[in-house]
Fold these 4 entries.
Entry 1:
Amino acid sequence: MFKKIMLASVIMFGSTGVFADMLIPYVGADLGLDYGRWVIKDVTSSRTNTTAKGVFGDLFVGAGWSAAGPLYLGLEAFGAETATRTPTRQINTNPGTTGAVVRMRYTYGASLLPGYKFANATLVFLRLSGIRSRFEMHQGVIPAGYASKWDKANVTGGQLGLGLQTDLNNNWAVRGEYDYTAYRTVTLFGTKLTARDNQFKAGVIYNFC
């Protein structure tokens, strides 16, 4: 569904000369803090609720249209490196118990950014994203049937955010944003992980106009 929305938006806003004239490509970078609430359900179905914290930095490239007065629509692709991880938690394994740490290494995705622009300088926008992230689990003891203390998986999710962007001049802008991300449940070492993340970030943008 998200891919269909993105494709329809590109066709709608890029099919006429009027919309093409209003297209502004841009690049940018963000720094932020990730605070997650992750649920670990081990091989005995025992649940552990834990926090996951870390800083992250991302780069993004996109294009924005503002052909309909104050209305705005942007398309954006992004990629980030993150240090988000849990503290060590004791979980049940096969056999016995062990300490386990779960971390997120990187993430990437694409976003649709509908918004409203005030006085041609300040933009309020929503972020609707499809996202994919690398999760890794480390256990103190190699579980039966595995050859390593690490298990890894790429996990997809959906992201909803709210942001505020202000133009400094014709080319440069700054923005701040809050995003909430919900991931699909993934299995690592037979343990199920469900991650929900809150991100707070600030960044700078360069517009090619």
Entry 2:
Amino acid sequence: MWNLNGGSFSLSLTESAQRGEEICNNYAPKGNEELLMGYGFCIMDNPCDQVAISLSEPPSQVYEVLKQSFPASFTTPEWNRNEGTFFLRGRGHYTGGYTHDLPCLRGLPPEFFVAILELVRLSFSKRTGEEPPSDQELVCSSIDSVRFRLHQNRNDIAAWIPTLPDGPQNIRQVYSKIYRDGQLRILEEIIEELSEYLDAF
């Protein structure tokens, strides 16, 4: 149980525990980003780990489609930062990923993919003198756009690796490496799944 007192807190157990034994809490599962930022540690091969990715405010017509398609996820009259943050999941995530018609989208929240799809659709609609894309072309272009964005995210993380020491020098660096490696693994898994789908066409 959490006890708050004068701005500080303590944890008291309702059951006995031995030193070094794992104590589970009553919070929801936490990925390594939340653990690192909130508690200062990470878990190797965390089955709850995910990658946060944010989208800038889309054009109003795209946001309207999202509100109609996902009314429980998009509840505000205007785009806000919380609704624009999505969580990508690797193959080892305890949920198994998200439900989609296409298995290659398993790691992407449906809301995120539909946002990209609608942005790509809008981009196509602004081209003059061209035939509108088929549904398959629209899906492939959207998957390619996501893959490009994830490559950028992956490269942004990997760019720092050559500047780091050969191995962690202290416990903070150990946790930073666990976090970084987990983010890279998830991004690379999703990029691979998207690439396999696109390579089939």
Entry 3:
Amino acid sequence: MNSPGASSPSTTQLPPQKVVVRFKAAGNAPILKQPFFKISPTQKFEFVIGFLRKQLGFQPNEPLFLYVNSAFAPAPDELVSNLYKCFGIDQNLIVNYSTTPVWG
């Protein structure tokens, strides 16, 4: 029996098939021509880091700093689905990037 405050299965929101990640340059970082990419929610944030490095043509030894919502740098083992669920804005996960540290 459902309690009055419990949500029914028909109203429970399913996780997205893909998460739209919007990359926003900060500081002196190069701007991507296409800033929106769809990424599997089961990927770890380390995949996002590697994906962005590839898009920018950066080598592994070149500095690259990523932040969610201009606020914090997620751990590389954090799931994209968790970040989207907690910090997604307008159906996007905003990932800011820079070649130098810009936020704490």
Entry 4:
Amino acid sequence: MASADKLENTKKAAFPVHHTYKNKGQIPSSAIMKTKRKWIPPDKTFAGSVKEGQGFAFHRKQKVQYEYKKLLRKERRAKSQPVVQYTDSYPEHLKHLYLAEEEMIKNEEQQKKKERRARDVNPLPEEAATPASTTTAATSTTSDTEPKRPDKKEQKFKKTSYQKTKEEYERIQTKRAQKRREAEKNKQQRQEALRIYKQKKMETYQILSRKTKKGQPNLNVQMEYLLQKIQDNQSKGSKKQKVQYEYKKLLRKERRAKSQPVVQYTDSYPEHLKHLYLAEEEMIKNEEQQKKKERRARDVNPLPEEAATPASTTTAATSTTSDTEPKRPDKKEQKFKKTSYQKTKEEYERIQTKRAQKRREAEKNKQQRQEALRIYKQKKMETYQILSRKTKKGQPNLNVQMEYLLQKIQDNQSKGSK
């Protein structure tokens, strides 16, 4: 019996009693574990499934991807923000190159200075200057590619590639800073415009959302607001029209200036045609003088018809240019014929006067149209004000509308009778 009791006790020690409703009161509250667990349906033994995309392998894959993307972001940040320190101290692995370049440039400058001083003190002839020129050609191999400049304006020291890079970097930085300032300014302007727009919108909403004592929309306030808006739009429209008119006027002037080249008809002829015009004038003057002499000789010594034949042949020979013109009596004949230049000038002036007359007529028609449009708009506004009248209760005034319609019918009848 004792051995059987011992066995039972050892079993109880090895296998503790499970928590049940029966022995709940026997176990202390501190021994009970309170853990939050995800709800799992009874038909599933584990949380998640491959079909739903929540399997164990899928979770592990997501975790690995997250860590990998995190590393990539860190590397990108490190690359995108390099610490570029442009100072006078050169990098260690390139220091010997920069120092050698500076030394070479200094030696070249010193050599050139010595040559200039020697040239100023003892100007050598061309034959003796040949050895010096060979030495300069040997020393100035690096400066052959550069453009030649006068000695006075020549720089004391050339810039190294490091200094050039530094200047380029500073120029880009200033350009970027300027762009940043402009962007900030534009952003502030946009924000200010948006604030004003929202403020106006709120004011409009407050006006239109007013109610009467009975809780109905206040139509009188709404009508006043709309009338005010119409008046503002009309004033804005007139200003806009004025600006548009001025702009179009400028465009027309520019178009005229382009389409009508400045032709100055003066006594000074164009250089490339001057000899032709002068020769034509000279020929016409000679013809006129010849005719004058013939008329005087005819008046003093009137010859018979037989003797007049040789003179007539000479006149026919000289007056070849005037055969096409209609013959007039000698007393009314012009002293000098008009040159082609003078004729062109007169034609140009005639066209200009015609154009000016057309312009005046167009301006007059435009003013008449504007006046008619103004009267039409005024009448339309008066009609709107009559028809938009309200009663004390805020309803349309039908009596006023009927009176207006009767008046209109009577006016139409009177016009028809006339």
